[in-house]
Amino acid sequence: MDIDEILKQKQLKITPQRRAILTVLERSESVLSAQEVFREVQELLPGTNFSTIYRNLDTLLSRGLLCRIPRENGGDLYAIRRESGHHHHVICKACGASFSMDFCPMEALERELKKQGFDPTEHRFEVYGYCNKCRSSKCDK
Ligand SMILES: [Zn+2]
Ligand SMILES: [Zn+2]
Ligand SMILES: [Zn+2]
């Protein structure tokens, strides 16, 4: 993935912070909180402050480069957005691995709600649990 190219395509200025955030999220196997992104970016760019990271996460999110996934017990997690279409996330509570699925439970519900005169504009749907790897390591214990 050519980070500079992607930033250019989205008409975003290439800054060391944006480059570092995307690098960190790209190589991470799990979804990360803003705090975790911050810690890893600091290793690449010492002296970066948290508010800069937070602001940039927001910008990258609004341009469709990231996904924001609510954590089961509050707070948000971030991942590189690899999907172009509408999708939902499945998140492992043990290792933080995230899988996306095209299936949208809203499709059926939307028709039903429209019949009742309700116009849904957005929705959230996440599934939390344990991935195959974490499930089997739990069984070993
Ligand atoms: Zn996503
Ligand atoms: Zn797992
Ligand atoms: Zn959906």
How does this structure look, described?
The chain has a 3-stranded antiparallel beta sheet. Strands 5-4-6 form a 3-stranded mixed beta sheet, with no helix packed on it. It is built from 6 helices and 6 strands; from the N terminus they run H-H-E-H-H-E-E-E-E-H-E-H. The chain is α+β, with helices and mostly antiparallel strands. 20% of the residues are buried. It is globular and about 55 Å long. The protein folds into 2 domains: 1-82, Arc Repressor Mutant, subunit A (Orthogonal Bundle), CATH 1.10.10; 84-141, Dna Ligase, domain 1 (2-Layer Sandwich), CATH 3.30.1490. The model has no long low-confidence stretch (mean pLDDT 93).
What attributes characterize this protein structure?
141 residues; alpha+beta; Dna Ligase, domain 1; three-stranded antiparallel sheet; three-stranded mixed sheet; 6 strands; globular; binds zinc ion
Weakly predicted, low-confidence segments: none
Total number of beta strands: 6
User: Are any ligands bound, and if so which?
Assistant: zinc ion
Strand order, largest beta sheet: 1-3-2
Helicity level: 40-55%
Average pLDDT number: 93
Look up the CATH topology of the largest domain. Answer: Arc Repressor Mutant, subunit A
**DSSP summary: helix tally:** 6
End-to-end C-alpha gap: 38 Å
The CATH superfamily name of the largest domain is Winged helix-like DNA-binding domain superfamily/Winged helix DNA-binding domain
Structural class: alpha+beta
Number of domains: 2
Radius of gyration, in Å, reads 17 Å
CATH architecture of the largest domain: Orthogonal Bundle
Order of helices and strands: HHEHHEEEEHEH
- CATH class descriptor of the largest domain: Mainly Alpha
